[in-house]
Each structure stands twice: as structure tokens, then as C-alpha cells.
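User: Design a sequence. Structure:
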């Protein structure tokens, strides 16, 4: 496993893109670091990422790997897992990085307790400092630990996603707005967009 690390400048730029420094972003940076070292950067659709979370870490992956929503080579599966698959079209190389269970141990549980208390009733000064310190400690650990300690390396659970295709547009017969053909729905001979279709279903 390659261990060439991101520069401090790179980390600062990623933090600016995301808006704050946090354990989730740190995790994403380590994933991106692995992807760039092992797969290369993706100016086009050569590298594809499938992410199973939509949390902080995905911003690092978009910013650092060249896999972005807009290009269609970043695909979100809403499984709520810290799991990230990468595929290289040229030679079929593929890997899924899954954050190990209980990755942050006792510190992670403390962070969870403090977060819940913050939402429920707020924190006193001492607790607020503790929360910040714990976040910082977890982030530092993520940045410094060997990858093998953070992730399991597995085979992807799905084949490489197909290239983004240009599809024809259809016009919704209810709201008059256009949508991609692949996102159109049919209801009693009518062609509808998804929001109009779902509004009908709710009636
Ligand atoms: Zn964050
Ligand atoms: Zn519509």
C-alpha cells in the first residue's frame, strides 16, 4: 500500500473547500490520498468513485481525486456507510475501502455523547472544550495512522458503473418542465417528472 502523503497546502485547500476541519474530512483525505496514489487523478471519467455516504469525507474525495458529481464519475449510494469504491476503467483495477468498525474507540463514543448532549441541552464551557479537543485528537489520529489501521480493503460490491450517457429530454405533462428521459415516470398514459408523479401518489 502506497503511503505518499498529501501536502499541508493540499490539506488546507481541502478544508477551505469543505468549510471546516473535522474527523470526517480527515477520513476522506486519507481515502483520496490512497485513490490518487493507487489509481491516479481523474481529469475525465477514467476513474470512478462510488461513495456509500454523503457526509463530510465526500468533499475531500471530490476536491482531491477529480471524481465529482458534476462529471458523473462520483456516484452516491445511500447506504450510510463509510465505504468508498474506486474503479479504473483502463485496466479494471478496483478496490473498496471500508472504515473499520469502532474506528475511534473510546474517544469516538465520548464524541458521540458530547454531540448528543450539545443538541439536547447544550454544553458548559468545560464540555465544549472537551468536544473540540476530542475532535482534534480523532482528526490527528486519522491523519497519522497507517491506512491498514483505518480501512479494510475489499472487493467492490458492484461492477464498474456505466459511463454517463447523454439522454434525450422529455417534458412533464403536469408542470411543463423538462427532465432527462431516464428520470421520467408514466402515470395513466401521462409522462411526468418525479415530483409530479410522487405528488399524485400522495393524493
Ligand atoms: Zn465536516
Ligand atoms: Zn412535473
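Assistant: Done.
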Amino acid at each position: 500500500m502506497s503511503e505518499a502523503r498529501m501536502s499541508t497546502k493540499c490539506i488546507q485547500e481541502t478544508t477551505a473547500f469543505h468549510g471546516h476541519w473535522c474527523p470526517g474530512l480527515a477520513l476522506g483525505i486519507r481515502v483520496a490520498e490512497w485513490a490518487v496514489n493507487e489509481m491516479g487523478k481523474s481529469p475525465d471519467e477514467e476513474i470512478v468513485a462510488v461513495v456509500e455516504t454523503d457526509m463530510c469525507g465526500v468533499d475531500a474525495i471530490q476536491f482531491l481525486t477529480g471524481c465529482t458529481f458534476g462529471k458523473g464519475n462520483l456516484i452516491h449510494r445511500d447506504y450510510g456507510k463509510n465505504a468508498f469504491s474506486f474503479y479504473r476503467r483502463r485496466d479494471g483495477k478496483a478496490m473498496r475501502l471500508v472504515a473499520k468498525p469502532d474506528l475511534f474507540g473510546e474517544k469516538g463514543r465520548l464524541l458521540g455523547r458530547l454531540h448528543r448532549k450539545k443538541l439536547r441541552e447544550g454544553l458548559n464551557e468545560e464540555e465544549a472544550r472537551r468536544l473540540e479537543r476530542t475532535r482534534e485528537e480523532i482528526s490527528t489520529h486519522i491523519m497519522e495512522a497507517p491506512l491498514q489501521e483505518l480501512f479494510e480493503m475489499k472487493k467492490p460490491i458492484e461492477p464498474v458503473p456505466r459511463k454517463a450517457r447523454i439522454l434525450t429530454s422529455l417534458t412533464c405533462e403536469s408542470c411543463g418542465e423538462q427532465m432527462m428521459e431516464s428520470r421520467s415516470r408514466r402515470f395513466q398514459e401521462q409522462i411526468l417528472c418525479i415530483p409530479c408523479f410522487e405528488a399524485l401518489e400522495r393524493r
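The CA atoms of residues 63 and 107 lie 28 Å apart. The chain has two domains: 8-154, 169-202.
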